[in-house]
Amino acid sequence: MRMNRRTLLTAYSGSLAALSGCARLTDSSEFRVEVEFNNTSDRERTFHFAFESSDGVEDWITRTMDGGEIETLSRELASDHEWRYHGVSDDEVLSGELRGVESGVCIQLRFVPELNGSDTAQIHQDLDDSC
């Protein structure tokens, strides 16, 4: 009988270890951010973009893109922080706060240097349940 308990406890411990690894893969304390770099101009542009929390700058991204090119990237950020973003295109600097931050949501940012004839860069923010 003692051998069966030992086998059961070993199997239980192994199952817990395996499940704890799976739980880390779907960490519910994070949210996803998708950033779309949209070069609406007809010339090459360089985009610089960063996420910042109270701990400092998390990520600095630089993309050089041809005219008309669109690129999207995704990042997972901790939902227990307040987050800001900073974008630079040519000489224009844009900053803002990520709104709607909570576990399991997806925030979409669209970084556009020119839109509808305006030569002022803009970053639009949307909230989605799934990216």
List keywords for this structure.
131 residues, alpha+beta
How would you briefly describe this protein structure?
It contains 1 helix and 8 strands.
How are the elements arranged and paired?
Elements lengths: L1 H24 L4 E9 L6 E9 L2 E10 L4 E9 L5 E6 L2 E6 L8 E7 L9 E7 L3
How would you describe this protein?
By secondary structure, this protein is an alpha+beta fold. It contains one helix and eight strands, in the order αββββββββ.
Structural class, from helix and strand content? alpha+beta
Parts with pLDDT < 50 across at least 5 consecutive residues: 1-26
How far apart the termini lie comes to 52 Å
The helix content is 10-25%
Q: Provide a count of the helices.
A: 1
Shape: globular
Please give the radius of gyration in angstroms.
21 Å
Approximate strand percentage: over 45%
Arrangement of strands in the largest sheet: 4-1-7-8
Order of helices and strands: HEEEEEEEE
Largest sheet: 4 strands, mixed
Structure summary, number of beta strands: 8
Overall pLDDT level: 77
